[in-house]
Amino acid sequence: MKKLVLISLVIVGFILKGFSQKVSNEAITQQIIQYKKDVRGPYKDIRWFCTDGSIRQPKDPCPDNIGPGVQHARYKDAVVSLGKTNHIYLGQILAYTDKNEFWDADNNHSRLKQYQLDKYLRAVDNGWINEKGQFYRGAIQSEDEANWGIDFYKWLLAKDENIEKHYFLIRQSLKDIPHNGDDNLSQLIRSQSKVISDEFIQFMDLRVKIHSQPEASDIEKVIAFKSKYGTQLSSNHKNKIDELVNTMQKFYKPIDIKSLVNKSSLFKNTPIGEKISSYIATNSSETKASTLIPETAELLMAIRESILDEKRPLARLQLLDLSLKLEEIVFKTSPEWEPENLQQMLTKICYLGMATAGSGYIELSEWDQINLKTPSENEASLSLEALTNVLENARSLVEWSSSMVKANYQNTVDLYTDFEPKAYGFIDDKIRGSIALYLGENVGKLGDFIAKESALTNKVMDIPNQSSFRGLNPGYAFGELVVVDGSPDDIEVDSDNIYVFQRPPADLKPVAGIATVSEGNMVSHVQLLARNLGIPNAALSDENLKSLKKYNGQKVFYAVSNKGNVILKSESNMTETERLLFVKKERNEEKIEVPIKSIRLTETNILNLRDVDASDSGKLCGPKAANLGQLKKMFPDKVVEGLVIPFGIFKEHMNQNMPNNDISYWTFLNVMFAKAERLRNEGVSEAEVESYQLQELEKLRAAIKEITLKPEFIEQLESDFKNILGKELGEVPVFLRSDTNMEDLKDFTGAGLNLTIFNVADKDKILDGIKAVWASPYTERSFKWRQKYLLNPENVFPSILVIPSVDVDYSGVLITKGISNGNEDDLTVAISRGAGGAVDGQSAETYLIKLNGGMQFLAPARESLYNSLPATGGIQKKQATFEKPILNQQNINEIRALAKTIRKTLPKETHSDYEGAYDVELGFKDNKLWLFQIRPFVENKKALSSEYLESITPIIDKNKVISLSKKIN
Fold first, then answer.
1. Which CATH architecture has domain 810-942?
2. Per-residue pLDDT tens for 760-804?
3. How many CB atoms are closer than 10 A to CB 799?
4. Which long-range contacts (CB under 8 A, 24 or more apart) does 12-15 make?
5. Which InterPro entries match (predicted)?
6. Boundaries of every domain in the chain
7. Which of 306, 337, 477, 725 could form a disulfide with 513 if both were Cys (CB 3.0 to 4.6 A apart)?
8. pLDDT of 365-386, one tens digit each?
């Protein structure tokens, strides 16, 4: 009783504070606990809402002379307040909601998505916040909700733009928003089976089957389960199993295709109406899945391609409802189509892919690029190379469809997961309810078939669907396996462990090895560090990650070969050769030294970017400024003006005494390193030494952020800022880019380790930003990477590149090499919308571009928010949609020409003997190309040439011919 009173006081307390203060996740959790126990849930009472705006008591209906009105509940005051403070809307009643506010376009459609998530939580958690309130009669009137739903879709579907930009979201919302359509029985089956397994653990195996490979025969399995465990099941459990069986029987009841006529009454005489009529006439008696699925997939695609031709909102709604019914047909019948040979398997994959695209899980432009086709009639065989290309395309389609779900819902799920962990299952449920589930299963079978034919077989513990693993970067590691099935951002990583993530964290600290479901993109800072340092890195599926969870915490050996096959085995199964790879080495072996012989710390004047070039790298400034200065000379109209704060100014400031200390910043730093070395020589463990160093660096970093900037430095900064950038300091937003002498060494890239401050305009913030950039090499993450790979980490000097912001439409990275295929003559381009694209691990639009023409689309961008740079400074988040590719042909042609020029002229201009690839950061504003950085593209040569990695890399005969009539099993 005391606890209930306390919870009530928490909620009342938060109401009394008013609507201005954001509510903590802990307080929201307590609210939810309270609502679960309340017979009214999140509602306080029921009222009549009349046409004239008046509100009347439940027993006092709206009189006829002012209109009929609707009856429903009102929200508790705390629920209303939560919407105002946190933009969180619990227990939404549609009849109570303005259509525009529900669509919530300014907040990435959050309210609509929350409504869907609320429905999911109620299904898997016994009503969730309405656990007791499910029986609060009159709170929600189903007829009023359905009428509101129809009005909402009439309003929403009247605009072509909504359908063009949000086809997937709108179509998914139809499964949850009542509008006199069908119930979402597929989701109900999954939620009912989850509830049973949560309460009766013996049901877990059957639940896994229902969730991962659902088919009609599962009904008999559930009935048999009830019979087997009858004596152990409570009457409540038996009732729930009966409800599940009833739902499954409804769902798997044969679809009467003739009944689809009722869903196509509004467009009988239109072109799409004729296709629908033909489909119904042809397939009304069809029971063969191998015939029905291709026909259905083609109609799904036709509906999607033609929906904009139909201008009537209600007709569009009917088309979308019909599309959902067709998707259900494919979903139900897919298990019945069991290909016997390779040709049938390729045909099935093609049509499941088409159905996936027609259902909105990828964009139409992406389907055009994926190039999935059925074998032609005159084809009797395919080469192994051609077959592998089909596999890669099909695998991409599976990945892109999953990423479409995540891109649309991840932000909302993350918001709710912080106070309701059960919300995390929503995305998985959405994916499992899609055709992509069966597409992925069949692609996995094709992958297994090709693996046997090519001897390129993954060996990952004993988990199923191993062909879904795909090596991204060669290397090997030994350590504890850590499987992270959630957000990685709060995970404290250990450099000796091997991590499996849903997505890679942008600020990853040193690890032994990584594998990710969402690989981000192949040229993000994380991926570049992995390539440079020989850290094994692979992509895997959601299903793979879940299968690996049982090995969490075990010591494992992990290797990725030069061709991308993956090995993951327990310590006990390691060979002697594999054990010898990890015999303890001398501490300094394989480390590199930061060159400081030619550094010029006597230069204490700010430099004009025009006056530096590549020859100044590591002497006056870091490679960012030096190389950008070089680019300014080579491409003057493609590089902004800029200032460079050289190493000498940093060192001059570091020679000052620390606050409340009689030694300088620089002396403090070197005393710390000297003591660390002494501790090691005394036998103190490396972990203790590192802990000491990090504590001292924290003190140093805090002190540098408060360092007194010399008056003569500020005076010159103000003068040069106006002379070079054209306006007073504080009137032009700029980037402050850390640029150290540890970056882009021959065998080490410091990509992304130190601070870049985005778009800062205010004078005081610029000055504080300079101090923060100077302090950034001493952060834990930056120090750990340096300490692990550098012999003299104390000799790291930061310079700062100051350049005006360009509010680009899109930006990213060009690598003058084909990363995916290793071809030195190709180009890799990864582009994201807005500023700072691709480098931080965003899901980027990625291409393999041939220098002499032609290209391959590797991945779409799937980030729902992107960075815009307002002239007032700071970062503004804008919303993205995915219906159109980011790059156009003009952009691609310009990138191709740029790469040719760089390859031909940069070594000459810099008098360099460097022959490798380059890493170029660029962006486009109104189709004009801007260059922001160029650096050598550093790969770990040892990993690429390791004898062990060569030994596990099979020799593949790409020209091997495989008959299409060959049995698939």
1. 2-Layer Sandwich (3.30)
2. 999 999 999 999 999 988 888 777 766 566 676 777 889 999 999
3. 31
4. 14/78, 14/81, 15/77, 15/78, 15/81
5. ATP_grasp_subdomain_1 (IPR013815), PEP_synth (IPR006319), PPDK_AMP/ATP-bd (IPR002192)
6. 2-181, 187-212+217-251, 339-455, 459-580, 607-804, 810-942
7. 477
8. 999 998 888 888 788 999 999 9
